Amino acid sequence: MSPVTDGRFSAELRRLRMSAGLSLRQLAPLVLSSRGHLHDLETGRRQPTVELVTRLDDVLETNGLLSGLLHPSPAPQDPERLAYVGRHPRRVDPATLHALAESLAAHRRLEDTLGSTPLLPTIRAQLDLVTALVAETATALRPQVVDLAAQWAQFGGWLYAASDRRRLASRWYGTALEWGTEAGNPDMIATALSMRGHLAWSERRAGPLIGLSAAAARQPASSGVRAIAAQQQARGHALIGEADAVTGLLDQAVELNEAASQAPDREPPWIYFHSAGYLAMQRGLAYRLLGRNAQAIEYLRLGLAGLPTESAGAAWTGPYLLRLAAALADTGEVSEAFSVCERVQQIGHVTRTVSLVEQAEAAVCALSARR
């Protein structure tokens, strides 16, 4: 399986090639490639092979810089079996489902580090596979197949949403809801509803944000899943300035999170990121929406500081950092706000989250005007 590239790979390749004074046409034969293929690498349209990157490092004399920007793609257990089942979906068996579950867990962890965009080519292939399995499986294994497929669909929806492809995100969240309902999985049903609400949040539509989050919270789901729904519902009320509702829902989310911590085995694997620190960030965001900047700064700092190392540079932390920067600027801490925005720019470049880079650049421009 091809490696996944760090978000800086394309720009670094172009910079190094230009520093060497080589055109794409001149470089291509030196690394046994074509001008078009190298152009696609520099624009991020293709993923390179390890062999090609090694040749690029040698020719451009980078001392291994480009190779250092490659990350191994999570290798599936028994890839031959997965390939066989891909050709013969009716032959799915428990070993195949176990391999797909392990692959999903590995890709979730990798997304925290690299962001959504680099993973999309691999995830599209996995979504095609699980869709074929759902279509073709009619045996006693169907409930497990549909349940696992719903998890892949929810993850695919998240990746598309994080890559600003909301129509595809909505489609896959809808598929996750359908498959989760067939599987009888209340955690997935609630999560899919919450994620549809999150799409409404990204468009600042308070009505569906509140309504879908409330619908998720009504499901007989785990405490952790309902905590996520409650805090998201609070965010919707913050958008329309209903401070009392915000406080009550955030307190409810804290209580649910405490209950979740008492029974961690009851929680589904896809909310591994959920924690007390995560809820502190949500409270900080809600307070920022309500204009309570001092409290927003306190809780955003608290939550961000409490994130595990593997999540600290995840693309999803960027919007919280930008809210922190805005609150700092509004309280006169402009220099610190600049530093926070620079951190967001770095996260956006590393994770190839174009919208995050653009938001950070716009924030820097706005801060510059204050000086």
What would you say this structure looks like, in words?
By secondary structure, the protein is an all-alpha fold. It has 3 domains: 68 residues, 434 Repressor (Amino-terminal Domain), CATH 1.10.260; 109 residues; 87 residues. Helix content is 71%, strand content 1%. It contains 18 helices and 2 strands. The chain has a two-stranded antiparallel ribbon. The longest helix has 21 residues. The radius of gyration is 22 Å and the shape is flat. It starts with a strand and ends with a helix.
Annotation keywords:
371 residues, mainly alpha, 434 Repressor (Amino-terminal Domain), 3 domains, two-stranded antiparallel ribbon, 18 helices, 71% helix, flat
Portion in beta strands = under 5%
What's the helix-strand series? EHHHHEHHHHHHHHHHHHHH
Euclidean distance between termini CA atoms: 50 Å
Radius of gyration based on Cα positions: 22 Å
